[in-house]
From TrEMBL:
Residues 1-22 form the signal peptide. Keywords: DNA-binding, Signal, Transcription, Transcription regulation. One of its GO terms (molecular function) is DNA binding. It comes from the Bacteria. This is WYL domain-containing protein. Residues 4-59 form the HTH deoR-type domain.
Amino acid sequence: MIAASARLLSLLALLSSRPSWTCAELAESLKVTDRTVRRDIARLRELGYSVDSDAGPWGGYRLRAGTRVPPLILDDEEALAVAVGLGEAALNRALGSDQAALSALLKLRQVLPRRMADRLGELDGAFVRLPGSGGSGVGPGLLLELAGACRRGERARLSYTDAEGHRTVRDIDPYRLVHTGRLWYLVARDVARGAWRTFRADRVDRLQPTGHPADLTDPPDPAHLVSRNIANGPYPLSAT
């Protein structure tokens, strides 16, 4: 069963790599018989993938747009390029939806091999953004860390520097990230105070998981809380 599933993924990757394949070419690439190729093509169609075929000795198979999004098979450099692009889109709203870009980037980071995650971390650490250049002052690596903490529902230890330069360390229960159009805010429950607070993401020094579940009882409306707490006026808000 595992071998058959892996073969279907390989078949999808081949069909995605060029406009058309003959049955013989697919069989040779997959090291299977023509009959197995035809059976696997039928299975892909059952799964919702649109695979067209042309009859005859010179006919072939081609994958066209359908109702299902096929899994992408990316090499290392392609995966890095996609991750960097999604990070920039999340920071600058280049796609019109920073939440969608951040969510997609989080999913990608979760499945990257360790070697790729390390390279992406090196790239993030090498980026420098000028003040006023349109960014939010926080790198995609930290945004992913904050978003992951919210998604896991796990208590974390937050090192934070406030507007006056005072650094504090506290336990928090991360809940949501809110984007004002300029800045990202983390909405979390301050465990010691038992109160819901907002923290500017660009002032977060470190976030360390504690291994304990978060207490998210009676959470606030994140956009409303940020709008109420920020001092420099309302901005269009979006929560993720």
